[in-house]
């Protein structure tokens, strides 16, 4: 029987084609080409399903999940709950964007233009003139950024803050090659980067200082500009990692000396998807040396032979893996373009006023939550005494985070991330995330439940 | 427009402005939630808590559009994009432009997946973990390998991850010292050079014997030494040739203590026919966006699981999914693991789509897939081979190809001056996707690499071959038509000199305005529609 996805599996067609190529059947071709490598067994896979059966089978398994629509969740830590405009879902379901791949600008003008608009919108958000093709996620974007710095400076050391996500730091270290990472400390009370420690570690070996703002633990680095100056004094580059929605209210890194900016685009119109819908972005100064140090593709706007018509092309095409193979600055390929297009749609919808309002709403709600939690006996929130954006640290004193969170879960609340093993120095501390999706009622419910649990 | 340029095809051409040129002051496309008045009162002016020097003075200068304007703009851009669903994509080899079944799109739109946070308590994510675990099991069966990780987010990323594991394995055994070379072949996907280089290895590239189209075994042997850490290649090659020396390469590399990682991004033509684990390879990688039907998504998200033999399982990225009587568990306690290579656990929606695809196909369906992919390719080879100016290098040593075939327009170029760049600009005038030439360096002159996949109906192959014949005949008959081609696409021939001119290139709208001045925007007053 012909398979519905395989047009020429209809016996009449297949016979006609086999006749044209002079082969008896497919098996004889494989025997001829693969020789002794031919797999002669039969794959042990479950039998094929109809569409109806498949929906039932997968639906039944997915039904075992209990989602953040069914429990009240305060998780962030790299994947954040935000309102996703339906227009984003509509555009990224468009068959043309969904199924295109590597056409050129003549067949895929729309894809090129949408990517140029993605680059432009991110550029305005972070205040940088150059933005690259998307990366997989924040961690790999940061990996690309440090590789750029190693290539551009010819130096081998990267300085990173100990307050950052240990997981992200691990990913970044995969990208070091022969480079080395040194961590600089943070202030125990405020979380702020320890400038003295940084000063003692920075040298003429430093390729770049990496800083996050807001940080993994949610607070805003108040002296980020000084960190940048210190990097530049040592002729090192200054790289800043950002959560993009904060940039409605927080100064963009391009305005405090960043040479390279990276971050996570998931908040820009992408659902949580169990961490499966992430989008890394990298921006930098429009500098030939820096751009020559990245292996990422770059789309530039250009003219066409027709007066007044615009086109697009790849800038510096000879740098990338497809031309240089092992000599390129890094690898590239299939990354996250559909999500970049989605982010472009999202930022176009929000506009300057929308992004400002959203940032403010998030801040108001997260501050309301920190205040409400801080009033619960036995809780300190935020633990770190610094301005913060949407995430903040919550300390439970002598109570184990695990135990408190188990009690919340019994009441239908998914608590924030337990960071007591990642940051033992902060004691029994968790990282809570509050965004525009959390109402005042949600937050009051969390505080009330904690109050009861901690009695 | 002269009639010789018309082909019966005409792409949508909206002359669509850049999004910054649309909309108007004060318009908005989305109403964001604002805080309840009491909540606002309780917290006061929180933005003021940010120290002045870290506060944003003016909001980002994003465009200001209403919702209908945003929708229309991006719908128009989508209409100017040629996807698998739009028409013939036979020319784009190495990409496996197969059909993405719509039922799998429906599966991943479920809120049971979209609204799941990756750090939720494990008891609440048992369903998704079960599907991921089951899918890993299927991949073990399909590959003949013992363990998989779903974490890498693209093919080059997976090859990079495999290189990192080679590094960790050798270090762990105290054998890394002096072993710093990865061997690849020039007809393998270029990431097999770029990714191990990014992982800190020196890469040595083996070239084929130009008489046969595959490396000479003696040349290969000479490249291998005690310094060899591993072999990273694709097979079948990007030429569609299956190199039957593979078993010999594996043996040679193993003899010097190196590991073998085969890039099976494109497994399509050998699905159910060849299991890399059975051949003795240590590691592999599959691209779910190629062989397993997940949509190419304009260039990702992809998802590229990596498979390994038992001996290497400890080095896989953490966490790994394990099954216990109590349920599925994400195990982070993996002391030998290379650690994470990306955030969280991989492109989960693509895992679910691919799981759906394998369940729709079954073992028989996978055989049907590889059979159709290979029959289609060889049928197309027959049809293209007779065209004047076109030839298939190494057709005597390898007359039968697997997933794709690398042709050469060397003769056409010599006889008419029309090479792949010029031909591609004209071909698209006929309403088909462009040809993929070949990765650089070009081993054959003026290459192109079609790959029909199993999704092309025979009529598409006939039509594609007819168009190729027509365009090649045009090259002999009417070279002028190529000069300013394309004539029937969304835009005209672009000025690619911008690409290497820092004073002119602009990667963002703000850079464009800085370099070219605001005056340029007024040229866009001739808007369509």
Secondary structure layout:
The complex is a heterodimer of chains A (455) and B (529).
Chain A lengths: L10 H11 L4 H9 L16 H12 L9 E2 L12 H8 L1 H5 L9 H18 L3 E2 L6 H16 L3 E5 L4 H9 L5 E5 L10 H7 L4 E7 L11 H10 L3 E6 L17 E5 L15 E5 L3 H5 L6 E5 L6 E5 L6 H4 L12 H38 L16 E5 L5 H10 L2 E2 L2 E2 L10 E5 L6 H14 L2
Parallel strand pairs in A: 1-12, 3-4, 3-5, 5-6, 6-7
Antiparallel strand pairs in A: 2-8, 7-8, 9-10, 11-14, 13-14
Helix pairs in contact in A: 4-13, 6-13, 7-8, 13-15
Chain B lengths: L36 H7 L23 H13 L22 H7 L2 H4 L11 H18 L3 E3 L5 H18 L8 E5 L5 H8 L3 E5 L10 H7 L4 E7 L11 H10 L3 E6 L18 E4 L19 E3 L11 E5 L2 E5 L16 H38 L21 E2 L1 H7 L3 H8 L19 E2 L9 H20 L2 H4 L25 H8 L13
Parallel strand pairs in B: 2-3, 2-4, 4-5, 5-6
Antiparallel strand pairs in B: 1-7, 6-7, 8-9, 10-11
Describe this structure in words.
The complex is a heterodimer of chains A (455) and B (529). Chain A has 455 residues and is of the alpha/beta class. Chain A is built from 15 helices and 14 strands. Chain A has helices at 11-21, 26-34, 51-62, 86-93, 95-99, 109-126, 138-153, 166-174, 195-201, 224-233, 288-292, 321-324, 337-374, 401-410, 440-453, and strands at residues 72-73, 130-131, 157-161, 180-184, 206-212, 237-242, 260-264, 280-284, 299-303, 310-314, 391-395, 413-414, 417-418, 429-433. In chain A, strand 3, helix 8 and strand 4 (180-184) form a beta-alpha-beta unit. Chain A is globular, with a radius of gyration of 26 Å. The termini of chain A are far apart. In chain B, the strands form three sheets. A seven-stranded mixed beta sheet of chain B has the order 1-7-6-5-4-2-3, with helices on both faces. Chain B is globular. Mean pLDDT of chain B is 96; it is low at 519-529. Chains A and B meet through helix 1, helix 2, helix 3, helix 4 and helix 5 of A and helix 1, helix 2, helix 3, helix 4 and helix 5 of B.
């Amino acid at each position: 029987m012909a398979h519905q996805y395989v047009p020429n599996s209809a016996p009449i067609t297949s016979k006609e084609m086999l006749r044209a190529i002079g082969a008896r059947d497919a098996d004889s071709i494989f025997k001829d080409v693969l020789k002794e490598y031919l797999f002669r067994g039969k794959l042990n896979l479950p039998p094929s399903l109809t569409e109806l059966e498949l929906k039932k089978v997968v639906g039944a398994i997915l039904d075992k999940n209990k989602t953040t629509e069914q429990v009240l969740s305060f998780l962030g830590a790299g994947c954040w709950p935000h309102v996703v405009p339906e227009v984003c879902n509509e555009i990224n379901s468009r068959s043309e964007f969904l199924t295109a791949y590597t056409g050129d600008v003549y067949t895929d003008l729309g894809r090129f233009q949408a990517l140029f608009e993605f680059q432009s919108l991110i550029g305005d958000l972070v205040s940088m003139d150059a933005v690259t093709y998307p990366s997989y996620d924040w961690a790999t974007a940061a990996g690309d950024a440090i590789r750029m710095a190693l290539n551009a400076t010819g130096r081998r050391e990267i300085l990173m803050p100990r307050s950052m996500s240990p997981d992200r730091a691990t990913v970044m270290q995969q990208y070091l090659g022969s480079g080395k990472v040194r961590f600089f400390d943070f202030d125990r009370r405020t979380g702020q980067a320890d400038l003295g420690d940084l000063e003692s570690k920075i040298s003429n070996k430093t390729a770049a200082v990496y800083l996050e703002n807001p940080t993994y633990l949610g607070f805003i680095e108040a002296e980020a500009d000084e960190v940048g100056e210190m990097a530049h004094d040592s002729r090192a580059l200054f790289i800043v990692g950002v959560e993009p929605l904060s940039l409605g209210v927080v100064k963009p890194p391009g305005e405090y000396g960043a040479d390279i900016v990276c971050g996570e685009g998931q908040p820009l119109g992408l659902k949580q998807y169990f961490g499966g819908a992430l989008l890394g972005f990298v921006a930098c100064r429009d500098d030939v040396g820096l751009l020559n140090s990245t292996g990422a593709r770059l789309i530039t706007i250009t003219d066409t032979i027709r007066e007044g018509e615009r086109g697009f092309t790849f800038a510096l095409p000879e740098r990338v893996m497809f031309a240089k193979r092992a000599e390129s600055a890094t690898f590239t390929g299939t990354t996250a373009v559909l999500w970049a297009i989605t982010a472009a749609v999202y930022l176009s919808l929000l506009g300057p006023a929308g992004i400002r309002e959203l940032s403010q709403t998030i801040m108001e709600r997260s501050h309301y939550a920190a205040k409400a939690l801080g009033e619960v006996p036995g809780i300190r929130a935020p633990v770190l005494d610094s301005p913060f954006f949407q995430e903040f640290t919550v300390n439970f004193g002598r109570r184990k985070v695990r135990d408190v969170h188990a009690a919340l879960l019994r009441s239908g609340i998914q608590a924030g991330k337990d960071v007591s093993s990642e940051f033992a120095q902060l004691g029994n501390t968790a990282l809570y995330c509050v965004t525009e999706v959390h109402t005042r009622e949600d937050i009051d419910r969390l505080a009330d439940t904690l109050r009861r649990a901690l009695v | 427009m002269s009639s010789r340029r018309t082909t019966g095809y005409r792409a949508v051409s909206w002359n669509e402005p850049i999004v910054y040129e649309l909309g108007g002051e004060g318009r908005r496309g989305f109403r964001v939630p604002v805080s309840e008045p009491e909540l606002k009162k309780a917290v006061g002016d929180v933005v003021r808590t940010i120290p002045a020097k870290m506060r944003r003075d003016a909001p980002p200068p994003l465009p200001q559009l209403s919702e209908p304007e945003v929708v229309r703009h991006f719908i128009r851009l989508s209409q100017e994009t040629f996807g698998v669903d739009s028409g013939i994509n036979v020319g784009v080899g190495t990409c496996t432009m197969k059909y993405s079944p719509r039922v799998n799109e429906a599966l991943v739109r479920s809120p049971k997946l979209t609204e799941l946070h990756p750090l939720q308590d494990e008891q609440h994510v048992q369903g998704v973990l079960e599907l991921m675990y089951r899918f890993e099991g299927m991949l073990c069966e399909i590959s003949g390998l013992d363990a998989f990780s779903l974490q890498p987010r693209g093919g080059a990323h997976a090859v990079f991850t495999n290189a990192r594991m080679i590094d960790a394995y050798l270090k762990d055994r105290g054998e890394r010292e002096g072993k710093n070379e990865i061997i690849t072949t020039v007809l393998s996907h270029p990431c097999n050079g770029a990714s191990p280089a990014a992982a800190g290895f020196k890469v040595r590239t083996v070239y084929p014997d130009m008489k046969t189209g595959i490396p000479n075994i003696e040349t290969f042997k000479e490249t291998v030494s005690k310094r060899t850490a591993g072999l990273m290649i694709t097979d079948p090659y990007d030429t569609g040739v299956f190199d039957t020396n593979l078993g010999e390469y594996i043996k040679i590399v193993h003899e010097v203590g190196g590991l073998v990682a085969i890039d099976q991004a494109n497994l399509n033509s050998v699905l159910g026919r060849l299991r890399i684990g059975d051949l003795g390879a240590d590691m592999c990688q599959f691209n779910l966006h190629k062989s397993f039907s997940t949509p190419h998504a304009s260039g990702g998200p992809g998802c590229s699981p990596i498979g390994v033999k038992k001996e290497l399982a400890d080095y896989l990225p953490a966490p790994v999914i394990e099954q216990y009587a109590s349920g599925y568990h994400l195990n982070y306690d993996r002391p030998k693991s290379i650690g994470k290579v990306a955030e969280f656990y991989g492109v989960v929606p693509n895992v679910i789509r691919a799981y759906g695809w394998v369940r729709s196909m079954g073992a028989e369906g996978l055989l049907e897939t590889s059979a159709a992919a290979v029959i289609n390719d060889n049928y197309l080879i027959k049809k293209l081979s007779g065209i004047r100016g076109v030839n298939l290098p190494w057709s005597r040593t390898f007359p039968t190809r697997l997933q794709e075939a690398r042709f050469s327009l060397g003769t056409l170029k010599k006889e008419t001056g029309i090479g792949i760049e010029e031909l591609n600009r004209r071909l698209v005038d006929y309403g088909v996707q462009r040809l993929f030439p070949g990765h650089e360096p070009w081993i054959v002159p003026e290459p192109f690499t079609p790959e029909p996949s199993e999704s092309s109906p025979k009529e598409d192959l006939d039509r594609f071959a007819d168009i190729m014949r027509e365009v090649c005949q045009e090259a002999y008959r009417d070279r002028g038509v190529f000069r300013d081609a394309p004539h029937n696409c969304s835009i005209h021939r672009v000025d690619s000199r911008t690409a290497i001119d820092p004073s002119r290139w602009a990667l963002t709208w703000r850079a464009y305005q800085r370099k070219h001045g605001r005056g340029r925007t007024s040229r866009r007053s001739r808007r369509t529609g």
